[in-house]
Amino acid sequence: MTDQPQATAATPMPQAPPAALELDGTDWQRVSPKYIVVEIVGYLIFGAIMTTAGFIPFWVSDWAPASLLGIALGACFLLVIALTPRRVRAIGYALREDDLLFRRGILSQRVTAVPYGRMQLVDITRGPIARAAGLSELRFVTAAASSGIVISGLPAEDAERLRDHLVAVAETRRAGL
Amino acid sequence: MTDFADGEWHRLHRATPLFRGGITVLILAGIVFGNLRERLIELFVGVPGYGPGADGEFSGDPLDFILRENLVLAALGVALLVLLLAVGGFWLSWRMHTFRITDEVVEVRSGILFRTTRKGRLDRIQGINIARPFIPRLFGAAKLEISVAGNDANVPLSYLTSRDADALRREILLLASGARRSAIAGDAEAGPEHPGPGPGVGVGAGQGPGGVGALLEDRAREFLAPELDPALAPPEAVLRMNPGRLIGSTVLSDAMLFLLIAGVGLAIAVGITGDALLLIGFLPALLGVGGFLVSRITRSLRYSIASTPDGVRVGFGLLSTSNETLPPGRIHSVRVNQPLLWRPLGWWQIAVNRASRSSQQGAAGQQQTTILPVGNLDDVRTVLRLLLPDVATDEAMPLLERGMLSPGGEDGFTNSPRRARALRWFSQPRNGFAMTESGVLLRTGAIWRSLTIVPFPRMQSVSVRQGPVLRPLRLAAVHVHTVSGPITPALGAIDRKAALGLFAAVAEAAIRTATVDTTHRWRASTAAPLTVDGGDA
In this complex, do A113 and B457 lie within 8 Å of one another by their Cβ atoms? Predict the structure, then answer.
């Protein structure tokens, strides 16, 4: 496969625990480390809004236990933010001969294989924070809603190259619905 | 043979607006009659006490007002104008509603002010449904609905004469099958024995020289004709519903079980409180379930499933009939399952996932996904062979049966290990998978037994998952993704290594089978002119 796009970060995946799912002989492409920052900034903004909203009952009622809601929300978001680097490092994809492999998740791990020929469309979206960091999100859509292949945190030009590559290989392996 | 599939624009049945608005017209007539009833009684029987008061006071009835002011002519004129406008509008909408069928697409244009054009690609056809609602059926009209992939992405042609609809379906399926037009023309010459209604569409398909008598006779014959034309499929390839089993299965459905439990609970409640009024609260549920049972039984009574040259034909309905032809390779996954109460009787039901979803209701009143409402093991075998001829081969049949019946063990399935007991209390020995050349079988449930089959060429992707519960047990779950529908093919709590092996094997098979799958043009390889049965397809 000569036209396979070279991802910027082709470093090996972090070592997985022994009982976890590990496919032998797959060199996973990692997403850009900058995506960690994007995720953290996004969660900080969202978490700040939600936590503030969580404290409203306390401010309104002035009843001390009501503040627990806001505290719990804040703690949850802090935990999510603390785990973000590992979660982002766990996102990976691999372009095999005839299918695309995609993995994500640490606690709840998921590996998906989707043959190129099953592609219905490829979507590239860019949120405001990701755009500032020069990142895009690539969505590989099949006829099944549950396939859920979303590779976020790809450098913009990589995403476009990957999209063109996917469209090209899908065209040669077209399958009827 | 009709002229519809010649690539030119055609119109629908002339009485289409009447059938479509049929119910509205009846309701309007009912309202008008209801309002005039008292006046008619007064007119003919002369009962006093109606009409304008003796003192000529305006009673508020517009008819009185019209009579008193001598506006009868004007009122009649207005009524006539409204009537003309309505008829003109209906006529115009009929004129503007055209369709054409080319080699590649079926296209429908409609609307007077707001034009709508709908195109469906023939090689993406998921099924063609012919529905005959009760009133149009009386007049020998039928609705043809071409489903293409997508949610309610259907191209409806309502209404056509019954015969045209049948012939048109045969032609569309022939075009879609990848057979060439010349082959279809050849088919036309050798075609159906009953003479077609000729060019154009007409109400008078049955209007022979015999006049009204012959017309009525024709209607009656069509109405009483068997649901499935015997010429279409050999009797051994046809599966029909056994009425006793249908009623039995309905009575023993899980909904009934729920009702029974609720009833017992209520009886206890009444016994304790002594308040019989509680029973009233039970009425709505009773009515609801009763209605469900009646509709299910009447719809499924004339159920039949048969193999035709262009796919599986599923038909049902007693008064309003409907039958659908599913071309080969349009079934994305199949589930054979057994509600608890059916178990002693050995009954099963079969549901499928399809790429098109229609608002039309299916055999048992559900969406058109229940292919076999109820059947014994023999029926299940027949239907599986029809739906998935590649998977349900004679060699694979024992494996499929073990998938339904076997309690587990060394039976060709890779089952959950003993440590999965914690998660699969009863079904652990049975919870497993097997693969054939062209499909994967997922077996689950020891109490509510179920077998899910996904043919490889139709699956979209496959994933293996492991959450915090499964990981310490060295287990994993495998999901096979297909188009959405009632079935979610997934298997939980299997050995991690087995899951990874299944994942790799399914991913590989998905690629391998896609390259050899030709079902979207299922007849493209047929070289010689086709011979198609001349009956109603």
Answer: no
Question: Tell me, what's the pLDDT at B28?
Answer: 78
Percent pLDDT > 70 in chain B is: 79
Residue of B nearest to A119 (CA): B460
- Per-range mean pLDDT, top range of B250-264, B311-325, B393-407: B393-407
Confidence at residue A75, expressed as pLDDT on a 0 to 100 scale: 94
- A175–B484 CB contact, under 8 Å: no
For residue B373, the distance in angstroms to the closest alpha carbon of chain A comes to: 26
Partners of residue A144 in chain B, C-beta under 8 Å: 460-461, 481-484
Query: Which value, to the nearest 10 degrees, does the dihedral of the CA atoms of residues B99, B100, B105, B110 take?
Result: -20
pLDDT number for residue A3: 44
> What is the pLDDT at residue A160?
93
Q: Greater confidence, B177 or A9?
A: B177
Say how far residue B327 (Cα) sits from the centre of its chain: 14
d(CA B164, CA B157): 11
Q: Per the CB < 8 Å rule, is B123 touching A176?
A: yes
Tell me the average pLDDT of chain B: 78
Q: Do A146 and B479 touch (CB under 8 A)?
A: yes
**Cβ distance of B461 and A143 shorter than 8 Å:** no
Amino acid at site A73: L
Which residues of chain B neighbour A145 with C-beta distances below 8 Å? Answer: 484
- Is residue B256's pLDDT more than 50? yes
Residue B50, preceding peptide bond in cis (omega within 30° of 0): no
How is A57-120 classified by DSSP, letter by letter?
Answer: HHHHH--GGGHHHHHHHHHHHHHHHHHHHHHHHH-EEEE-SSEEEEEE-SSSEEEEEEEGGG--
The model's pLDDT over B184-228, given as tens digits with 9 standing for 90+, comes to: 444 444 334 333 333 333 333 334 445 677 777 777 777 766 666
Find the residue in A nearest to B125 (Cα).
Answer: A177
What integer pLDDT is reported at residue B23 of this predicted model? 64
Amino acid identity of residue B312, one-letter, is V
| Nearest alpha-carbon partner for B387 in B450, B342, B454 | B454
Nearest Cα residue in chain A from B464: A111
Q: Which chain B residues touch A99 with a CB distance below 8 Å?
A: 507, 510-511
Domain residue limits, chain B:
243-299, 329-521
Mutant choice from B454, B460, B466, B479 vs A, greatest count of A C-beta within 10 A? B460
